[in-house]
Structure formats: structure tokens, C-alpha cells
Write a structure and sequence with these properties.
The chain is mainly α. Among the domains are: 55 residues, no CATH class; 55 residues. Helix content is 45%, strand content 5%. A 3-stranded antiparallel β-sheet has the order 1-2-3, with no helix packed on it. Helix 4 packs antiparallel against helix 6. The N and C termini lie far apart (94 Å). This is PYM1 protein. Interacts (via N-terminus) with magoh and rbm8a; the interaction is direct. Associates (eIF2A-like region) with the 40S ribosomal subunit and the 48S preinitiation complex.
Length: 199
């Protein structure tokens, strides 16, 4: 929309106009080459101009031989076109996750089998060895398993010692049954640790 200019013997000016709320704008004097702000073209640097003028077709393909796409939503993996490698990778991951979630309801869920398998698994009891399976496949596997077990036993003994100190200091006025059982296991843990360290 072109702004109407008025020219008289005093010079060029934009006449006063009424605002939607009923108040009036003052008339403004303008110089000869004035262009209103809303009519100033938006600045585009040379790169933006270059990419706007660049054809959509790949180099070497003439517009005459290019296949015509039907208008509408694009199909296929074209949303990835202007994305970085990481963004494309993330898109593929999201797509894979979505497909797995769609497949998940179709597969029968065996929750009863899972719960029965969990019931069979036992944790180390008061005199147990922790259920660590004998190492197969050489000395190094046995050593790593043994060192893991030793580390675990030392951690348990540390926890028992901290619990004992808290009880003696009065930090725990009423210990729970579980805490008392933990204190009772101290001797068995120490024996097992000594046995593993002596091997």
C-alpha cells in the first residue's frame, strides 16, 4: 500500500490520519526521496539471494526432463534433506523407536514366565556364597569374578560397620528387622572374604 503524499507550497508531507481508536496522527513533513518503513524492502545478503535464485533441480538435470511431482505432502525420507548428520541420525533413531513401539503391542507379553523366573533367582543369604557361578573359560575370568566378589563383600562389610557405629552412637534408636539381619551376617561375610583372599 503506497502512502499518499501531499505536496503544497510548504513542501511534501504525509497528511494527518485517524487511528482506529478515534485519535488523530499529526501530519509529517518528509524529504524528497523518503520511503516509508513498511515499504522498505527486506535486506537479503548475497548468499540468501544466491540460494533463492538457485534451481531446485540437481546440477545437470534440465527442467524439461525432470519428473513432475504431484502436489501434496512429500513421501519418503525427504524431511532429512537439509539436516546435519547428527540430526539425521537422531531422526532415524526416533523412527526406529516408533516402529518398535508399534510392534510391541502385537507381541504377546510373558509376564507370568518372567515373574516365575525372578522367583527362582536367589540372593545371598546368611550363610550363602552369593550364588556366584564357577568361572568357565580360564583363569582371567575366574580372577575378575573373584575380585568383583571381594569388592562386593568389602562394601557390605563397610555398610555393616557403619550401621554398627550408628547404633552405638545412638543415631538409630529403633533398628529394623532388616538392619538387625545385616548385623547378624557380619561374621559370615568376614569368613567368606577371608576365604576368597586366601585363594
Amino acid at each position: 500500500m503506497a502512502t499518499p503524499y501531499v505536496t503544497d507550497e510548504t513542501g511534501r508531507y504525509i497528511p494527518s490520519t485517524q487511528r482506529p481508536d478515534g485519535t488523530w496522527r499529526k501530519q509529517r513533513r518528509v524529504k524528497e526521496g523518503y520511503v516509508p518503513q513498511e515499504e522498505v524492502p527486506v535486506y537479503e545478503n548475497k548468499y540468501v539471494k544466491f540460494f533463492r535464485s538457485k534451481p531446485e533441480l540437481p546440477p545437470g538435470l534440465s527442467p524439461d526432463t525432470a519428473p513432475v511431482r504431484p502436489p501434496g505432502p512429500s513421501q519418503g525420507p525427504h524431511p532429512e534433506q537439509g539436516l546435519s548428520k547428527a540430526a539425521r541420525r537422531n531422526l532415524k533413531r526416533k523412527e526406529k523407536r516408533r516402529q518398535q513401539q508399534e510392534k510391541a503391542p502385537e507381541q504377546p507379553q510373558d509376564t507370568d514366565g518372567l515373574s516365575s523366573a525372578l522367583e527362582k533367582v536367589s540372593l545371598s543369604g546368611p550363610g550363602g556364597t552369593g550364588g556366584a557361578p564357577p568361572a568357565q573359560g580360564g583363569d582371567s575370568a575366574g580372577n575378575s569374578e573373584r575380585s568383583r566378589r571381594i569388592k562386593s563383600l568389602r562394601k557390605k562389610l563397610r555398610q555393616v560397620e557403619e550401621l554398627r557405629q550408628r547404633l552405638e552412637a545412638g543415631g538409630l534408636p529403633q533398628p529394623t528387622q532388616e538392619q538387625l539381619e545385616k548385623l547378624g551376617r557380619r561374621k559370615a561375610l568376614e569368613d567368606e572374604l577371608r576365604g576368597l583372599e586366601s585363594d
